[in-house]
């Protein structure tokens, strides 16, 4: 999200009519699955009891209850994705991201016993992040295969969000459930000159077209540990250079990131990589520009935008990345001005973590704040999420919360009309021993 500045089931027993008849005469049914020595001896005992006139004659043979079939544990994902990741990895041994060893003066960290011990202490932290990352990978890979022009943006957004909720096992419909795991922030589907923060509100009729360039940006969290990753989809090969430029720039930023790396210098490498590309569209050649007022950012628990930014143009920012930091390295390229402004209808919101206590006059604002606190906390949400929880006529209260500084709104960010923008993004963990690109997959 962009920042501004196995066992086989046993078969049931089936008793044939002839077997029933045989049972009535006191003879064992031939050829049945239970036709073994123990059954023979039981039948003989009953025959003897009947012949002797003892109390065994009064006893009826107990009917065997059919054994319940054991369900096999799922071993693969469905399409669309519905199987919880924790079922596919029952021991919580989730796949690692791409681990990159530190270089130069930090190389000794790879084998340092103290640093290795610190890494081992983070097992729960890593399990949560890796589960969230695997959810992201499986959902986005399904989206890349299935989404086609002609689908509505609402349908696409719900495909992403329903997949995330299914794979984390948290639908978010009961109070507090979405705070345990689920969407880290709403699914952004920003088209063409719109670079970020666009998701359809209720009633939106927009449909994906063949000539569109769509940024798909969504987050997954487990226990507040958010994986933020994005990619761009285009259905016409003429946009290939734009997508390649931004993907290369993101990978350059990921490569340069690490302990003690200065964010201003990373921005310079990103810009140099991005702006080495150009693109020809309809006979006109355009330079591909880094969008200078969009940045990457660090991620804190339950807070998608932390206190550090990673510019995507060269700057004098001497802020260093540090051990234990989590960063979203995201880059945006544009054929336009390389500068975005607020535009279009707002859909994204988040409660401010540093909001001061305000005496709210509107009862609708008070009740809505209670809903936000119990269901989202400081996690970003959108208007569709409030609709989903059954909230009605909440816009007045929501606007009051924004004006009071309790909730921050995130309007869509757009370059000039007629231009095209693209985005790629990865989340990286600055671990004590290695840098882990937690969201890396075979796709990007």
Automatic annotation (TrEMBL):
Annotated source species: Hapsidospora chrysogenum (strain ATCC 11550 / CBS 779.69 / DSM 880 / IAM 14645 / JCM 23072 / IMI 49137)
Residue sites binding substrate per the record: 197, 305
What Gene3D superfamilies does the entry give? Creatinase/methionine aminopeptidase superfamily, Winged helix-like DNA-binding domain superfamily/Winged helix DNA-binding domain
Q: Name one GO biological process term.
A: proteolysis
What biological function has been recorded for the protein in this entry? Cotranslationally removes the N-terminal methionine from nascent proteins. The N-terminal methionine is often cleaved when the second residue in the primary sequence is small and uncharged (Met-Ala-, Cys, Gly, Pro, Ser, Thr, or Val).
Annotated a divalent metal cation 2 binding sites: 228, 297, 330, 425
Stretches of Basic residues bias are at 59-73
- Reactions this protein catalyses: Release of N-terminal amino acids, preferentially methionine, from peptides and arylamides
Query: What protein name applies here?
Result: Methionine aminopeptidase 2
Q: Please state the protein's primary subcellular location.
A: cytoplasm
Recorded hits in SUPFAM superfamilies, A to Z, give: Creatinase/aminopeptidase, Winged helix' DNA-binding domain
- List UniProt keywords, sorted A-Z: Aminopeptidase, Cytoplasm, Hydrolase, Metal-binding, Protease
Ranges of biased composition (kind: Low complexity): 19-31
The record's subcellular location field reads:
Cytoplasm
Q: Which cofactor does it need?
A: Co(2+); Zn(2+); Mn(2+); Fe(2+)
Q: How is the cofactor bound?
A: Binds 2 divalent metal cations per subunit. Has a high-affinity and a low affinity metal-binding site. The true nature of the physiological cofactor is under debate. The enzyme is active with cobalt, zinc, manganese or divalent iron ions. Most likely, methionine aminopeptidases function as mononuclear Fe(2+)-metalloproteases under physiological conditions, and the catalytically relevant metal-binding site has been assigned to the histidine-containing high-affinity site.
Lineage start: Eukaryota, Fungi, Dikarya, Ascomycota, Pezizomycotina
Q: Does the keyword Cytoplasm apply?
A: yes
Compositional bias per record (Polar residues), positions renumbered to this chain: 74-90
The record's GO CC annotations read: cytoplasm
Annotated region (Disordered) at 1-101
The protein's matches in InterPro entries, at most eight in alphabetical order, are given as: Creatinase/aminopeptidase-like, Met_Aminopeptidase_Type2, Pept_M24, Pept_M24_MAP, Pept_M24A_MAP2, Pept_M24A_MAP2_BS, WH-like_DNA-bd_sf, WH_DNA-bd_sf
* UniProt feature, compositional bias: Acidic residues: 37-47
